[in-house]
Amino acid sequence: MTIIEEKYNWARTNFSPNNPDTIVIHQALAPSCTAQDIHRWHLERGWMGIAYHYFVRKDGTIYRGRQEYHRGGHLLGDENINTLGICLEGCYTDYGNLTEKTVPETQIKALHELCDDICSRYKIVAIKRHDEYPSAKGKDCPGKYFPWERFLRERGIIVVSDAWKEKAVEFVRKFQQATGLTVDGMAGTQTNAKLDEVIKKWKEPPKDNAQDIKKAWNDFLNAIK
Ligand SMILES: [Zn+2]
């Protein structure tokens, strides 16, 4: 993987430090543009210059934006802390005649390579869409035509739908109720310790006191029917 270094004329150079633990993916909302175009657009907004750390073109070429150790400006204010912003060339949402419904495979492949490289150098705990951030509520970035779930699946990240998350809370509550814990639906230290205890117990021959757990499990299965 090659990263193309660009020379940028920054409006200001008093960057805050950045210690990346999260990758955030964006789209340029433009079918064809260069890293220098984005730099210019961001200068025109009165920013320091290109707000992203990387720009991935459709042909798979990767350009550096800001240095990784400089805080980005691709989110709002403190949301930028310890993130790396990657922008994809393209307009992968409904946006008049700019709309593009297909993301080139070469671009997705380059994005994977870039993420692999970043993850090999930092302890990255999350890869997020721009629109997962509160300041981007209602926006569609990196765009509904970007195959987000496929991308995460290919990175070994399983997407849990909100519906499942609700079921999980339901199960935690039932489990807490059945095992005599405080029923708050949150799997904290006590609940996790109890779960460890139960799992351990299940590896042993069934005992009478496993009835409650069986009931909790059956209630959970009934709940998700
Ligand atoms: Zn964005």
TrEMBL record:
It comes from Thermoclostridium caenicola. The keyword Protein biosynthesis does not apply. Coiled coil: none annotated. Residues 10-143 form the N-acetylmuramoyl-L-alanine amidase domain. CDD domains: PGRP. Keywords: Cell wall biogenesis/degradation, Hydrolase. This is N-acetylmuramoyl-L-alanine amidase. The keyword Hydrolase applies. Residues 2-131 form the Peptidoglycan recognition protein family domain. One of its GO terms (biological process) is cell wall organization. PANTHER family: N-ACETYLMURAMOYL-L-ALANINE AMIDASE AMID. GO terms for molecular function: N-acetylmuramoyl-L-alanine amidase activity; zinc ion binding. InterPro entries: Amidase/PGRP_sf, Amidase_domain, NAMLAA_amidase_2, Peptidoglycan-bd-like, PGBD-like_sf, PGBDSf, PGRP_domain_met/bac. It catalyses: Hydrolyzes the link between N-acetylmuramoyl residues and L-amino acid residues in certain cell-wall glycopeptides.
